[in-house]
Amino acid sequence: MSTDLPALPDDFARVLAVAAHPDDLEYGTAAAVAAWTASGRAVSYVLVTRGEAGIADMPPEKAAAVREDEERRSAAAVGVHDVRFLDHRDGVVVEGIDLRRDLAREIRRARPELVVVNSHHETFGAGAWNSADHRAVGRATIDAVGDAGNRWIFPELVDEGFEPWDGVKRVAVAASTQPTHAMDVTGYQEAAIASLSEHAAYLTALDPRPVAEQAREVVLMTTGDDDGRARVRFEVFG
């Protein structure tokens, strides 16, 4: 992979990472999270769903509890202990006012300077269609950053005690087909592998190979670079 992208600016102390499902942040992005927490930055996670529709042979009510537990352990593996779930329905997330309000509330709560979210684009590359949930959550998160800073959008949030927050400097879109910046995560791939490995029930449902083997393959593929270093790429707004 190309190494000619500029470095992601590091002028922030607080990060809010948003994802549609448990495991979404673990496919490479967790290496960046591990680097941020190791440097003393505060990182919070918001999961829009509990991933309850993600395991074909497990009923949603059981899968929700399993996947929430896996996500909390996965986050802890890279130093994140503030993990919130919004309880939108997995597989049919609606990109609309309710989702924007819920995300604006979490942005006001966490008061981040950097917001990270997975790709909102239609594809992950040639022949790889992006899911409806990913697209909806990505776009709604970008919109919610603006909503969070405007007192007159969702004034009910002020009544709930969440004052406007316009301190987000930029949004970093992970797994984008149009990356603009890269972050060196050399030394943090093992933490990312450990993080993804916590999603054992989910990964086993997808592939019978050992979970650790799957996690290592994915993380090395998504963070590997042609100069022997490791990088996570982002499309940056702001």
Task: Please sum up the structure shown.
This protein is α/β, with parallel strands linked by helices. The protein has 8 helices and 7 strands.
Written account of the structure:
- The protein is an alpha/beta fold and 238 residues long.
- The chain has helices at 29-38, 60-76, 97-110, 132-148, 156-159, 189-197, 200-206, 211-223; strands at residues 14-19, 42-47, 82-85, 114-118, 170-174, 181-184, 231-237.
- It has a seven-stranded mixed β-sheet with strand order 3-2-1-4-5-7-6, sandwiched between helices.
- Helix 2 links the parallel strand 2 and strand 3.
- Helix 2 packs antiparallel against helix 6 (189-197).
- It is globular and about 50 Å long.
- The two termini are 25 Å apart.
- The model has no long low-confidence stretch (mean pLDDT 97).
Task: Provide key terms for this protein.
Rossmann fold; 8 helices; alpha/beta; 238 residues
CATH superfamily: LmbE-like
User: What is the CATH architecture assignment?
Assistant: 3-Layer(aba) Sandwich
What's the oligomerization state?
single chain
- Main β-sheet: number of strands, strand sense, barrel status? 7 strands, mixed
Structural class: alpha/beta
Based on CA atoms alone, the radius of gyration comes out at 17 Å
Q: Stretches where pLDDT falls below 50 for ≥5 residues? A: none
Residues in helices, as a percent range: 25-40%
Name of the top-level CATH class: Alpha Beta
The string of secondary-structure elements, in order, is EHEHEHEHHEEHHHE
- Alpha-carbon distance between the two ends: 25 Å
Tell me the β content. Answer: 15-25%
Pfam family, one: PIG-L
InterPro entries: GlcNAc_PI_deacetylase-related (IPR003737), LmbE-like_dom_sf (IPR024078)
EC number: 3.5.1.-
Keywords: Hydrolase, Zinc
